[in-house]
Amino acid sequence: MNGMASSLHDESQQMSLRERKKRLAQATIEEAALRLFQQQGYERTSIQDIAEAVMMSPRTFFRYFASKEEVLFGPMHAALSDGLRFLQHTAPTESPHAALRATFEYLASRYQQQRASFLLRYQVAVQTPSIASVYLYALMETEPALCDALCSRLESAPNRHEIRFLVAIYMTALRVALEEWLEQEARGDLVSLLHGYLDAFSSLPHHA
């Protein structure tokens, strides 16, 4: 291995190590924060409390999270970002319905893979009036980006108003399925539950 290749290899290894350390620190902070949220309530838990629980300063906490809201909502935003990438690069494009159904099934599977994490965060959220309504409705923040991604992938010129409406329908189906699933303590198959709601829309025109 020549000097340049060796240097690039070492840099890659160091970057990987830094990323692993960062993720470990984030996981440690999340675990402590969620435990405190459960024990003393979300609103009564401060950044100082979380930092002290993991033996770091508040300043160090902010290297990993911008706020305690990010600790609580981070996995949801990560799942939605993954769903957007799936729509942009993987979902079928023969019709808007095919693309959206595949994307939202993928999103449901992502939630199901992390059921314990999402259930715990949901339980914290519903016990906190200031964020209870935000937890599930935060899903809707992704709708414009999903609409843009779908419009850009369709081969024929889309009717943007119809696409926007379809995205909202599919997002509503996911939100309702998620709420029912989480209220049942994440038992059962979320993907199958979502299928039931999506099938209710099967009679809608597929000409968008």
UniProtKB/TrEMBL annotation:
<keyword id="KW-0805">Transcription regulation</keyword>
<dbReference type="InterPro" id="IPR001647">
    <property type="entry name" value="HTH_TetR"/>
</dbReference>
<dbReference type="Pfam" id="PF17754">
    <property type="entry name" value="TetR_C_14"/>
</dbReference>
<keyword id="KW-0804">Transcription</keyword>
<dbReference type="InterPro" id="IPR050109">
    <property type="entry name" value="HTH-type_TetR-like_transc_reg"/>
</dbReference>
<feature type="DNA-binding region" description="H-T-H motif">
    <location>
        <begin position="46"/>
        <end position="65"/>
    </location>
</feature>
<dbReference type="InterPro" id="IPR041347">
    <property type="entry name" value="MftR_C"/>
</dbReference>
<keyword id="KW-0238">DNA-binding</keyword>
<protein>
    <submittedName>
        <fullName>TetR family transcriptional regulator</fullName>
    </submittedName>
</protein>
<feature type="domain" description="HTH tetR-type">
    <location>
        <begin position="23"/>
        <end position="83"/>
    </location>
</feature>
<dbReference type="Pfam" id="PF00440">
    <property type="entry name" value="TetR_N"/>
</dbReference>
<dbReference type="InterPro" id="IPR009057">
    <property type="entry name" value="Homeodomain-like_sf"/>
</dbReference>
<feature type="region of interest" description="Disordered">
    <location>
        <begin position="1"/>
        <end position="21"/>
    </location>
</feature>
